[in-house]
Amino acid sequence: WVGGNSSASPYYFTQPGLLGGHLDDDVTLPIYGLASFRIIIFAIYSLVCVVGLLGNFFVMYLIRAKRATGLTAIDVYVFCLALTDFQFALTLPFWAVDAVMDFSWPFGHVMCKFVLTMTILNVYNNVFLLTAMAMTRYWAVASALSLRGRVSPSSAKWISLALWFLALFVTIPTTIFASTSKVLGEELCLLKFPDNKWLATYHLLRVIIGFVIPLVVISSSYIMLLNFLRQHRVNANNQHRQSKITNSVQLIIIVFFICWFPNHAAIFWGILLKYEAVQWSEAYYYFHTFVFPITLCFAHSNSCLNPVIYCLIRKEFRMALKDSFLHLSSLSRLAEQNNGCWRPGKESALNTAFDIGKPISMGH
Domain boundaries in the chain? Predict the structure, then answer.
């Protein structure tokens, strides 16, 4: 979906008018061969899928366990972000199969429309939630020294729901124009717009809404946060704590930029091509054949990096993660002692080892 042309698959290049002489025919041609390259992409998609599913599931589990001790607005956003990234990871097997089959879509028209819609919906929602988290973090710190109210967990839930509806709204064009089509005998999953200008406008709006505006807001929020801490000398006597906050902010901005900028830069080249601001060239073809797939991998990796950045770097979640592994280890040892058999009378011991029915301790 993140390609610079009408194909949902990234490894098709566009040469307007190649089959029929019309600039509005956004013709896509498969790149035959390069089997090893396709296998590498398949492997990366599969790895990101597995890590994204496991990482985001565990984040959701930890946050649900924390409910007993109370959730913050950031916890609500992180849970929604993990759920969004989990759903996005579920779409990756389809794109992995599409890639390894030389980008021939084998799942039919309905699944093309559904998978493409869910992919874009979750990517938009991901970016919107990251933006909301950045704004909420600044507001939480700024409001701590004033009479202004902070964002409550209940408000965060409503904001998350509103952002989901916003993501759904901007995904409507994808749902309408996603379709399968025969190109040179291959069944492709495409975004079939009436002409190139429509497609270029679609991609331009996606770059602005899905990258430029969020990047500006996220960067501005965290920069204002750091300036606020310095001006009010928060943690001034604790240089280590201040350094950790600064490094965390830098990490958030850098990872977001590295994951998304290469892909959106590649898309922007395609936009210029469709608006006829630049001419199609072999450089564009080779770029979209060999470089663009790498930008896609960076973009997709964001779904498995988010749990680490926004959850596991927090002390309370690291403690909860450690406690969970200790509980699992205790459970495993008890199972081994009993030869893996569940016997009457052992339920009490297992309950004690795994704290069944009790929330994970989120203590410091």
Answer: 12-313, 316-364
Q: Which of 6-10, 177-181, 334-338 is predicted least confidently?
A: 6-10
Specify the range with the lowest mean pLDDT, choosing from 2-16, 78-92, 172-186: 2-16
Tell me the residue ranges of DSSP E strands in 246-301.
none
Report CA-CA distances (Å) from 267 to 206, 270, 296. Answer: 10, 5, 11
- 213 to 63, 207, 218, 271: CA distances (angstroms): 29, 9, 9, 18
The Cβ of residue 351 has, within 10 Å, a number of other Cβ atoms equal to 12
- Going by C-alpha positions, the residue among 7, 83, 45 that lies closest to residue 298 is 45
Is the entire prediction scored with pTM above 0.90? no
DSSP-derived 3-state class of residue 54: helix
Query: Looking up tokens 């009436």, which residue turns up?
Result: 194
Instruction: Count the alpha carbons within 13 Å of 122 in the hemisphere toward its beta carbon.
Output: 24
Q: Give the integer Cα–Cα distance in Å for 205 and 198.
A: 11
List of residues 6+ apart from 9 with CB closer than 8 A: 3, 95, 98, 99, 103, 105, 188, 189
For 180, other C-beta atoms within 10 Å of its C-beta total: 19
Cβ within 8 Å of residue 297, ≥6 positions away: 41, 44, 45, 48
Is residue 88 within 8 Å of 52, Cβ to Cβ? yes
Q: Convert the pLDDT of each residue in 76-132 to its tens digit.
A: 998 999 999 999 999 999 999 988 887 789 999 999 999 999 999 999 999 999 999
CA distance 22 to 159: 45
**In this predicted model, which residue has the larger pLDDT, 15 or 138?**
138
Q: Which helix (H) or strand (E) holds 180?
A: strand 178-183
Burial 57-79 (b: 16+ CB within 10 A, else e): ebbbebbebbeeeebbbbbbbbb
Architecture of domain 12-313: Up-down Bundle (1.20)
Burial (CB count <10 Å: 0-12, 13-18, 19+), residue 326: exposed
Segment 67-82 shows an average pLDDT of 86
User: What is residue 240's predicted lDDT score, i.e. its pLDDT?
Assistant: 58
- The tokens of 76 are what? 């609500």
